[in-house]
Structure formats: C-alpha cells, structure tokens
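Hi again,

Forgot to attach this to my earlier email, sorry! This is the prediction with pyridoxal-5'-phosphate bound. I've pasted everything inline since the attachment limit keeps bouncing my files.
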Amino acid sequence: MNRKNATLAVLGGEPAILRPPPPYPSIGEREIAAVNDVLRSGCLSGFFGSWEDGFYGGPRIQEFEAAWSRKFLAKHTVSINSNTSGLIAAMGAVGVSPGDEIIVPATTMSATAMAPLVYGGIPVFADLEPETFCIDPQSLKGNLTDRTRAVIAVNLFGHPARLHELRALCDARGIYLVEDNAQAVLATENGRQCGTIGHIGVFSLNYHKHIHSGEGGMCTTDDDDLAERLRLIRNHAEAVVGPAGATDLTNMVGFNLRMTELSAAVGLAQLNEVDRHVGARRAVADGLTAGLGDLSGITVPAVRDGCTHAYYLWTARYDQARLGVPRSAFVEALCAEGVPWFEGYVQPLYMLPAFRKRMAIGREGFPFTLSSRQYGPGLCPVAERLYHEEIVWFECCAHDIDDSMLGQIVDAFRKVYDQRELLVS
Ligand SMILES: *Cc1c(COP(=O)(O)O)cnc(C)c1O
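Structure tokens for the complex follow:
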C-alpha cells in the first residue's frame, strides 16, 4: 500500500511520522563556556540602581548591547529582562499618560496590549491584513483620534508589518511607532531590519523565540533621548534622575528590569549564531511552502514585496468552504500523524476579561474609567475570521527538522489532505 492511501492515523492507521522531531538544539558549547566564565568571575550582575558606573550594567551587558547595535544597525540597544518589560519601558519612554490611546493589532501576544495599561494608556484594537496577519493601516487610520499617543506594530509570526508606511504616518502626526519584534528577528522591510524602523523596537530572548537566553529582551532606538529614558525606567529612574540631571520627569518612576550577566553571556553567544538559527527555521518554512503550496484551499504564507520573513511560525489559511471539512477535524487528523499542528493562534485580545469587563488597574476599573471604548465581538472581523475559521500553524521554531523529517511532515499533511472526506462524520 503506498503511503498516500495508508489509513489515516486518526482513523486507527499507523502515523506517518513514527519518531517525532526533537526540540530545536539552541544551546551549545559556546553558551555553556560563556556561562561558566561568568560564574567563575563571581559577578552575576554588574548593575547598580544609582547614578554611578554600575548604572549601565556590567561588562557582558555592555558588550552584548554594543554587538546587538552593530548587528541590527541601531544607534542604541538597551537590554531588558523580557520583551514584555521592554514594551512597558517603551510605553513609559514615549510618555504615555493616563487616558492616552495606544493602537495595537487585535491579534498578538497579550503583552502587547497590556503594556499601555501600566501607564493608564487605553489599548485600541485595529484589524489585521489577512495576507500577512499584521496590523491593517486602514483600520489603524480609522482608529486615530487626538488622544492617540502611539502605535505598537507587531511583526506577527515573523512577517513585517507595513513599517515604513506606519512610521511615515506616525511621524506626520507627531506620535510614536513602537515595534513589537518578538517574533521577527532578522526579518526585513525594504532592506531594513525589523525592530529598527519604528522609534523603538523590542525583541524577545524568551526560550520559545529564534534566539534566547531563557528570559530576556532587547530594545533598539536611534533616538538618544528615548534610549536614556529606557535605561532610566529599566533601573530605578526615581532614584537616579536627580544626579543624572533629567529635566522631563514624565514616567521617571523606574523598575528593576535588568538583565543578568549570565543572560547577557548566553545572548551574546546566540547573537553570534543568529543567522544560522533563523536560517534553520526559514529552511523549514520554505520546505513547507514548497511542499504544500499547490493544495487548493490551503493558502501558504505570503511574503509581501520588499520583505523577508523570519518564520517564527509557518501560518497557513484554511478554506473550510472549499475543503469541506471542519478545520478542527483536519488539524486533529494532522496531529495524529505524529507532529503537532495548531489552529487559530490567540483569540482577538479584546475578548480577554480585562477588556470585556473594562477592569485592569485597581478596584474602580482604571484606566477604562478615562475612556468610553467598549470591547467585544465584532470589533475586528478579519482577526475573528482568521482565529475562528482560517489560521492553521506549525511551530517551525520549536523542532529540529532535517530534510528527511521535512519530507515526512509534508507527506503526512498531504496524506490527510487527500483523504479528508473521510473526516466528515
Ligand atoms: C513572546 C512575545 C512577547 C513576550 O515576550 P517575553 O520576552 O516572553 O516577554 C510579546 N509579544 C510577542 C508578539 C511575542 O511573541
């Protein structure tokens, strides 16, 4: 019996993939040696929360930040303990005040929409472009008001948002563009690195991202003033602004968002290999696109002209009307063949209880007490359709996949596709 006609695993047959791929091997001898060096030095963090030499961190922090700036052609890099912290610091640095509106895409990791709330900002949700899953400039424009302070664009799944267009739009209005670039390290638009096109870009070094230090993040900016404000918020601004001579005290109440020397040492080793790490994920994505691109009813990821994609996830669109099988049954059958596939990604963030119930900071519902914005179903129809009906994704960042495994994954998908009518009960 040829494999194409083999019984579907979900119907009791043998899975197409008998040995699932191992996790992507991101940590090697270089990282181990770098961590041991830090441990032997005895100094696991060089930061001091006061206006003295240690304010900017220890030797690995400074080396890592300088190397990051060189790699991404950014004037400044400010290391931070997570992308979430970076987004919070960015909101503080651009001067978000209670009641200001921050436009974010409806679909992204929740931290993007949470960060404004810390400063009393009101997240406003814009819809997505269905082809790239990134924020739709038309929907964004429809949400601009004179209270809009900033836009957070997310380069979702590894594809650039329309960053140059958004930057021009923000500059023309005198508002800020922050890039949440957690998923798109080394993606580019018109030859420029994602994360460096907005006023501030934020990268994640969380374990699940292309390169990581367990937890961590990096903020990039070409603006001297924003860079210094990010550094102050990272490290107890309130105790430092006096001796530092800061004149604008807006949001100069700091946190401890500092990265350790250990994380910086791991991050530096990862940065030195970032092309290889992203290249491995791109190869998986390109193989899936080549192997599945001819299947009608499955729309493989688009890459907009002038862009390169970093493929945090390989995200296709499923046309249930054309395929005649519920998406959930199809994905269940795919999973049964031996590697995990997923549907939907996250629900539009305005469906979270904090937004539906307008309850975030304190007992009275601050900051929603400053806004009449309501959140609920119907706000962003494209994001809802993608979530409920269309998105099917594969975690190309997570697995170690060689050519043979890639072939098996493509074959398993085609096996389910070819026999899908058997899935209709
Ligand atoms: C992972 C992720 C974050 C959060 O990053 P952390 O470093 O875990 O805080 C934020 N936004 C997006 C789009 C992400 O994918």
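The longest helix spans residues 274-292. Residues 21 and 401 are 6 Å apart (CA to CA).

That should be everything now.

G.
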